[in-house]
Design brief:
The chain is mainly alpha-helical. Helices cover 72% and strands 2% of the residues. The chain has a two-stranded antiparallel sheet with strand order 1-2. The protein is globular. The two termini are 44 Å apart. Belongs to the major facilitator superfamily. Monocarboxylate porter (TC 2.A.1.13) family. GO terms for molecular function: transmembrane transporter activity. It comes from Apodospora peruviana. InterPro entries: MFS, MFS_dom, MFS_trans_sf, Proton-linked_MCT.
């Protein structure tokens, strides 16, 4: 807008009268009232192509304002940064190398847990044949629970700047425990090596690896976490094949060492490439966020996790034993059912996370849990090899989405990023407890492997997933009532 030059001295002259000063103050108020710069404008810009660079906003002074000579005021929002380290890259070589490193860590953690089914079947017919199915499943369940429970302590250590220490110690314990498992001949030896040693190492690695990826991605965070979590089903595909092929030829000891050497070799990748982007705050983080205990949607979601992870891994632990004990498949083919579960889970880690960035993580997780419950009920009626193959592929796909989306939902349920670690740790405490007791309960139900016992175990698994679905629906409704939107 063109201004008359003679009006400038009236505005800028320091000796202007008090009435002019009041007029300028009123004009400034008008300018603030009419500007388009607001929290909503910045929020809308953050949802654009790059959330680190919100769109610029403009404001124009009213035509009759004494400040009209300033013409159009342009305000550009500063790039979002954390602790002064610059905007979140949301891509680039360094960011994607963190994802590659996280893939390796997921192989070392959830990948081994997904493989335990073949160890369970082997132990029941070989060196641990005198132990019950429930006792043997405690080895795998302690692994899975420690992965979650140790995260309560590894989270604060990560925040304090000890990522490298956690990484090196965790990788050492996982590899060392796997080597020691190859030497074990009794139950307590396997429990200490494969259960406690490997499990503690997993707990030191898992939560920090997810936190690292979150530092490098914002808009594509769910997809990046999904890609990194694909490491676990890849390991679940490869390791059972290695075990079933090599064990008859070179024995249990050397087969387990081969897997340990593979873990040792690939562990070089995270050691070399994984680095934190945000410097440590230097502040101690509370283990418990007390505000979460008053956040009803958060509490309902965690309750859903309790039931889902209580029963989610029942097929992974027992599908091989079921196939051999009930003559559903041949003894040689049975270990490949675990491979098929994990093959389906590859798609379950990638596709749901890609959809979550568009439709909302909680909505996609709710759908995955509901379908997993239906499949678990369908498992009760399968009596042949073809049906077992179809079940393994489908259940692996939909249950994989449930696992991979959980960290993203914890972030969405946190009011600010400073509380994400504490709330995720609290949730992992509940999840770890569920993983600890879930499969041993299934082993106690299956008892002497009679058909009726097997049906009871399957019903236990399906019922837990059905209850989890109900809690996730409750979370969805509560969040809509609070935020007035269906996409979360």
């Amino acid at each position: 807008m063109e201004m008359e030059p003679e009006k400038d001295p009236r505005i800028l002259d320091s000796s202007a009268s008090s009435s002019s000063e009041l007029q300028i103050a009123d004009a400034d108020t008008d300018l603030r009232r009419n500007t388009n710069v607001s929290a909503k404008a910045i929020e809308a810009g953050a949802a654009g192509p790059n959330p680190s660079f919100p769109a610029a906003a403009t404001a124009t002074a009213p035509a009759d304002s004494p400040l009209a000579d300033l013409s159009t005021v342009t305000v550009t929002a500063a790039p979002v940064s954390v602790n002064g380290v610059g905007p979140i890259p949301d891509g680039g070589l360094q960011a994607w190398m963190q994802v590659v490193g996280a893939v390796v860590i997921l192989i070392d953690t959830w990948g081994l847990i997904n493989t335990f089914g073949v160890f369970q079947a082997y132990y029941e017919t070989h060196q641990l044949s005198e132990s019950s199915s429930s006792d043997i499943s405690w080895i795998g369940s302690i692994q899975a629970s420690l992965l979650m429970l140790v995260g309560v302590f590894s989270g604060p250590l990560f925040d304090a700047g000890y990522f490298r220490h956690l990484l090196l110690v965790g990788l050492f314990l996982v590899v060392f425990g796997q080597f020691m498992t190859s030497l074990c001949v009794s139950y307590w030896q396997v429990f200490l090596a494969q259960g406690l040693c490997v499990g503690i190492g997993m707990g030191l690695l898992f939560l920090p690896s997810a936190a690292i990826v979150s530092q490098y991605f914002s808009r594509r965070r769910a997809l990046a976490i999904g890609i990194s979590s694909a490491g676990s089903p890849v390991a679940g595909i490869i390791f059972p094949i290695i075990f079933s092929r090599l064990e008859p030829k070179i024995g249990f000891g050397w087969t387990t060492r081969v897997i340990a050497f593979i873990l040792l070799g690939i562990s070089v990748i995270p050691v070399v490439f994984m680095r934190t982007r945000i410097p440590p705050t230097g502040k101690a983080r509370a283990l418990i966020d007390r505000s979460a205990l008053r956040d009803v949607p958060y509490l309902v979601f965690v309750s859903g996790n309790l039931f889902s992870f209580l029963t989610l891994y029942v097929p992974f632990f027992y599908i091989t034993v079921l196939a051999t004990s009930q003559n559903i498949t041949s003894e040689n083919f049975a270990p490949y059912l675990v491979t098929l579960l994990n093959a389906g889970s590859v798609f379950g880690r990638l596709v749901p996370n890609a959809l979550a960035d568009r439709w909302g993580s909680l909505n996609v997780m709710l759908a995955c849990t509901a379908v997993s419950a239906v499949l678990a009920f369908a498992w009760m009626g399968i009596r042949n090899e073809a049906g077992s193959i179809v079940f393994a592929l489908l259940y692996g796909a939909f249950s994989g989405g449930l696992v991979s989306l959980t960290p993203s939902i914890f972030m969405e349920l946190s009011p600010d990023l400073s509380r994400v670690g504490a709330r995720m740790g609290m949730g992992f405490l509940v999840t770890g407890t569920a993983l600890l007791i879930g499969t041993p309960i299934a082993g106690a139900i299956v008892g002497d492997f009679t058909p009726g016992r097997w049906l009871g175990m399957m019903g236990y698994g399906a019922g837990g997933l059905l209850l989890a679905t109900a809690f996730y629906v409750g979370t969805r409704v509560l969040l809509y009532q609070r935020n007035k939107r269906w996409r979360e």
